[in-house]
Amino acid sequence: MRTSDEIVSMLEQPNLELMNQYGVKAIFQFTQVNRDRLTKLAQWVDQNNIMVNVEKTFPLDEAGNALDYLKDIHPRGKVVLTV
User: Fold this and answer.
1) Predicted TM-score (pTM) above 0.70
2) Which terminus, N or C, of the chain has the lesser number of Cβ atoms within 10 Å?
3) Helix/strand/coil (H, E, C) string of the chain?
């Protein structure tokens, strides 16, 4: 059983004040992306070791709509393009 949520940010350093306010543990991670690392990440997701919050999916031909959604809605989860 987890006592707090954990967040990994790949965009910016976590804000300590916000972490304490919401009771989360957050770290900053920068990773060079390659095939082996993406394969391992996909395995972890498939094994439910990593939970991904997908808010909305768009088909690839609606990529412009996906960008508008990101700009206008400011989603809390990931916006995904499906191929």
Assistant:
1) no
2) N
3) CCCCEEEEECCCCCCHHHHHHHCEEEEECCCCCCHHHHHHHHHHHHCCCCCCCEEEEEEHHHHHHHHHHHHHHCCCCEEEEEC
